[in-house]
Design brief:
572 residues; 5-stranded antiparallel sheet; 5 helices
């Protein structure tokens, strides 16, 4: 047979395969769409666990990890090709393209040396020092904490094993910060009383609601930010990487990429969610939603626990999923409608959404108690914090005003040990503190009390201020004692109807984020000593993009682990 015949036959086979593949894809797409619209319920309003897994179905993406590896390979080649000598170094600003105030210095030394890094600041308290462990002749020194719009001075001190010291100062020029970050105005700064960490590596991070997340030094200057838009989730993991929630593509409106990254912008893993759910107005139609809405934590097994919309046509923000860190597969589903009274979601009228869906719980945070295998959960719209056994999901206790709770749930309520106890309202950012100091049945919780009664707990003091608070809970006696709060003295100026945080940061200090002050026109970050109630750091943030008020304020170190920026390939 002629070559022409085989060529035509081959093309026909390829065409059939392509057509068959396209047909199969179209069929799979139609089946999935049908299953998303015609949802399976175990009983009224309760989606089947298998349906929730189908609705969410996170998928691992290696696109950005591959891009990270390509850049790393490029820098490996550049380091190898460099001539020896500290004056022959190569400096790179924003080496991984999403961290504009980071840098990389590649340099070879004739003898094995260790390196000390100094990023020169405007004051001693804003000058960052970090020692790179180990002696080597080929150095890839990561630089974090550069100023924006400046030709930064960075000094490397090289010391041989014999004690010979050589210093060289490099210049790293950066661009302006994006306009949408807004203006940060320093009101108070007492660096010696602040928690700045060894080498002043700790910054105050303004975690965005939907925009730019950035870090401030002791003088209120931006020393780190991500060019990626980030929403709500910005956490340090046990391996010292960062967990962030961002967009799958910059042009998308929803935040459906959960990314494991670091302060340089290297991407280690990414989990993508489609977020295609039925609408309330017409359940035969599907619309894209942000799946992970407020929080994500790492469990002791290193899996990730996420607050999610589960794909319901009726309810939002009332489900958690545990996903396998390596594969992204859903390992556990916790639907809060299975734990709390049906009246809480069936009769809820506290808030209303434009899409018509019911946000009856509005879970905004959780914290895991490894000692007891318990999960502590905060829900704004029920004005409630409660604990469950993580394995069985059985309720342990509830911290909330008693009104509107059925009799069968009253037994879980914590009883105040003092008269005139003011219950939390619309609270955020619950976390366990001082775990090593509490044995037996006691736990200590810190949280941000918005003082907004959505469902229960209204008093004459409601909406007059917001505060960081600490309570001690005796789980055996089911009692609660408020041991500290700060915010009442600031009054209505720092009242925030939504968002906020309160975190113990060390040295007896707490960092409070009043994220929605002046009804979303201002965010304020206040570090206060709990013993004296004296403010040691205070910054006002204004003129930011609408909707990008700071969700939380966190104190993190730019160098939480190994400071040497290893040019190694990441295994997807």
């Amino acid at each position: 047979m002629s070559k022409k015949f085989w060529r035509i036959t081959g093309l026909a086979i390829v065409a059939l395969l392509v057509l068959g593949g396209a047909t199969a894809y179209h069929e799979r797409h139609n089946i999935r769409r049908y299953l998303l619209v015609h949802q399976h319920y175990t009983k009224k309003d309760i989606l089947a666990t298998s349906q929730i897994k189908l609705n969410l179905r996170p998928a691992l993406s290696t696109k950005h990890t591959t891009a990270t590896n390509h850049l790393t390979a490029k820098y490996q080649k550049q380091l190898k090709a460099l001539p020896t000598g500290v004056a022959q170094a190569k400096t790179i600003v924003n080496p991984y393209q999403t961290s504009p105030l980071s840098g990389l210095i590649l340099v070879k030394t004739p003898h094995a040396t260790k390196v000390r890094l100094t990023v020169h600041g405007d004051t001693p308290a804003t000058t960052i020092h970090q020692t790179v462990s180990g002696y080597r002749t080929q150095h890839s020194v990561g630089v974090l904490g550069l100023y924006a719009n400046r030709n930064n001075r960075v000094t490397l001190t090289f010391t041989t094993k014999a004690g010979t010291v050589t210093r060289h100062t490099y210049r790293l020029k950066t661009a302006k910060t994006p306009h949408g970050i807004g203006t940060n105005t320093l009101k108070t700064s007492k660096p010696q009383q602040m928690v700045l960490g060894k080498g002043h590596t700790k910054l105050t991070f303004a975690v965005s609601s939907q925009g730019y997340t950035y870090g401030l030094d002791a003088r209120g200057k931006i020393r780190w930010y991500s060019s990626l838009k980030i929403s709500h989730v910005f956490k340090e993991l046990s391996n010292h990487h960062l967990l962030i929630l961002t967009k799958i593509a910059p042009t998308e409106h929803k935040y459906n990429a959960l990314q494991e990254t670091d302060f340089y912008g290297r991407v280690y893993r990414q989990y993508n969610f489609s977020g295609l759910f039925p609408t309330r107005q017409d359940t035969s139609k599907l619309a894209t939603n942000t799946v992970i809405h407020h929080d994500a934590i790492e469990l002791p097994n290193h899996n990730l626990l996420l607050t999610v919309d589960d794909g319901s046509k009726k309810f939002v923000e009332d489900t958690m999923i545990e996903i396998d860190r390596k594969t992204g597969k859903i390992q556990k589903v916790i639907d809060l409608k299975r734990l709390l009274p049906a009246s809480a979601y069936q009769q809820y009228t506290g808030t209303h959404r434009p899409d018509g869906k019911i946000d009856w719980f509005h879970q905004n945070s959780m914290t895991y108690d490894q000692k007891r295998d318990e999960l502590v959960v905060s829900g704004r719209n029920q004005d409630m914090i409660f604990a469950i056994n993580y394995k069985t999901t059985k309720l342990k206790w509830i911290l909330a005003a008693p009104e509107k709770l059925p009799k069968s749930y009253q037994k879980y309520l914590l009883k105040p040990t003092t008269k005139d106890y003011r219950y939390n309202g619309g609270q955020h950012a619950v976390t366990l503190i001082h775990q090593n100091q509490h044995q037996g049945d006691s736990v200590e919780l810190e949280f941000y009390d918005n003082n907004v009664p959505v469902t229960r707990g209204k008093t004459a003091q409601s909406k007059q201020w917001s505060a960081g608070e600490i309570v001690t809970i005796n789980q055996l006696k089911r009692t609660v004692t408020k041991t500290w709060e700060f915010g009442q003295s600031l009054g209505k100026r720092n009242f925030t109807n939504i968002v906020g945080s309160s975190y113990a940061v060390g040295k007896g200090n707490t960092l409070i984020g009043f994220g929605y002050a002046d009804w979303g026109k201002r965010s304020e970050f206040v570090e206060v000593n709990r013993k004296t109630n004296r403010v040691v750091f205070d910054v006002d943030r204004t003129h930011f993009a609408h909707g990008d008020w700071s969700y939380r304020a966190e104190r993190l170190s730019l160098y939480p682990g190994e400071s040497n920026l290893k040019l190694t390939t990441i295994k997807p």
